[in-house]
Amino acid sequence: MDVWISIILSICAASTPLLLAATGELVVERSGVLNLGVEGMMIMGAVAGFATAQVTGNPYLGALVAMGAGALFSLLFAFLTLTLVANQVATGLALTILGIGLSGMIGEGFVGRPGIRMEALDIPILTDLPIIGKLIFGQDLIFYISIALVFGVYWFLFKTRAGLTLRSVGDNHTSAHALGINVIKVRYLAVLFGGACAGLAGAHLSLVYVPQWVEGMTAGRGWIALALVVFASWRPGRVLVGAYLFGTVTIGQFHAQAIGIAIPAQFLTSLPYIATIVVLVLIARNRRMTMLNTPASLGQSFVPDR
Amino acid sequence: MAATQQFDEPVKTVPLLEARGITKIFDTLKANDNVDFAIQKGEIHALLGENGAGKSTLVKILFGSLQANEGGVLWDSAPVTVRSPSEARELGIGMVFQHFSLFEALTVAENIALSFNAATPLENISTRTRDLSTQYGLPLDPDAVVGDLSVGERQRVEIIRCLMQDPRLIILDEPTSVLTPQEADTLFETLFRLRDEGRSVLYISHRLEEVQRLCSAATIMRHGQVVDACDPREETAGSLASKMVGAEIDEVVHRESAATDKVVLQLNNLNMPSTHPFAVALQNVNLQVNAGEVVGIAGIAGNGQGELFGAISGEDVAANADAVVIDGHVVGNLGISERRKIGGAFVPEERLGHGAVPALTLSDNMYLARHASDSDDFQSGGSLKVIAKNAIKSATKRVVEAMDVRKSAENPPAAALSGGNLQKFVVGRELDRKPVFLLVNQPTWGVDAGAATHIRQALIDLAASGSAVLMISQDLDEIFEVADRIAVMADGRLSQPEPTANMTRERVGLLMAGSSDNVDASGEAA
Domain B2-92+167-245 has what CATH class? Predict the structure, then answer.
């Protein structure tokens, strides 16, 4: 039994950064912005969180600073693409490359240092309950935030006025502008939110999952998060399912190797992308599904009338 | 300061809205030049002018989407500054756009909610949508997704959205361009009702008969200035049109139908399945177009005209080759270039993005369209296919001169031309080849009256010179003016073409609405 609980716990830990980053990116893309810099923002969060925890000894402060670093990094993207109207794809890629390089430089002195782990919750009695105790009451704070975030984002997007405004901007920015909605402002806020989420996802890696600083430690998770958003056809609930599906595959791969089932690791790591392509093909075949799910102005720059 | 200004002439009542000295300058172009006009309470006021006359700019300024460089607006005789559309709505100005500003992925109620302040719950909006739409005879389901609605229904959403704010002034930009005559009648009833409630309507349209029927006042613009104000009921369509263009428009000269017995285009039971849920399947389309005649295809947008264009031009290939025969060649299974090589010419509806690549120059666009049909002239070096720049340049120049295309530079990108001038170029590019068969979709869509006449005349002249012309259009005036025979497309089916002289607008309207059964019957009877 304990084995299963520890497997489930490790699945949660593997899924949480994917879930955080993908949920943030979902909000960004729902506003019509394609930020391919998730990987870069995530690793900036990882290094900023780790460094702060090292200096202050406080992993929670580290997580906060990581969110700030992700948001600040995304602000650069927002300024370039929204204010200066640079191409979103190119800028996003540049952001990732810059993030990986910059984080390596900042983190140079931290390589090999033992990390400060964000401890799991330990509530007397509740955490000690059999089976569910550890799963429900015995995880780290970021895990709870990630779950709450999915529901929060769902509620925000589909139940609040601000969410409707955000979706409208992503669907047709020209019309939204004509209605007097400040398209650029909405997108700035969405991009910053996405940046903060990616930063927190990075902090989870360097403060909970590993916890250490290793150069390039995000190892493509930002790209998986991007793929997940499409896989989930821009729906928060499906992001949750998708993130845990890929978390399970990642963990399953280790255990499969341990018991001697030889599935090539490359195949498993490529699964999210294959799944995404399949989903894209399925959506593309049906115009109504595309219309309902894909933010129609995704990736398009917006320049208001004079 | 504006409020103290004296009226030049006595006015019966205080106008609801008065614009004074509005000037708007884009770079070097004066889009609005010292525009004065006034809308009275409870009147339907027409704003007339050719494309590019400055109507849209003026309306955008009134609605707050643009800011004037000079001049001001009086609302209920108090000076106001409208900085944004939401401020305009707070004042009581509502607008229904020509190109709908709706969100396809959202529901009707969500679309409407977006133009309200955040405090209004969605349920209230659903209820009020239902109430208002019944009250004004424009039925709508608030929970339907807008992407699933027809064009007419989308317009209803716009109108209801506008009415829900209880506006005192409603601006409609070309509202009937997408409607059947019957739908337009329903819209007019609604407008009359609004007028009777004391609201004012600013009605922008090219359709002079409509303006005469609806409006009790008109302001006419040309080159950014107000050139005249009149009561359209006391004018004729001809006098209004000449005020708009500043000179008597050349009437299209229609010769006696020069149709010969030679069949140039033949469609035999053309069937095309719909490629996506919103496409219309073509069902058993049969048609003959002879050399020397223009056949017009009328119909409301989205009834299969685009699909028919694709099937004839070769963008979509038919299942059986003999479904499409051009000039004796069986081409149903051939691509566009093959069809162009045997003398077919095709001008699609969208001039930017379909008919021309916006960012490429006119000569590049010339080459792209005619590289196959004119490969001897436009390419040299055999299989190297070196582009013959000079030949293309001179062909471009020829077209520009023949069609009187006005442009700012020697060889500008297509996007730099105004809609009318680009359309003249795109049509002229095909005419220049003297094609055996020309298919043109919406030849004068969004084109000013002068350019439209030019294009229509060119189509008639091409037919007179012995080519066959098939023209798809939603503009009934154009169809009646140009076509020798008229067919109507409804829901993927094409009615049998009949001589224009035997057709009436009412009959076309019925056919457009899809009542093919009784029309077939009456066709037999007649």
Answer: alpha beta
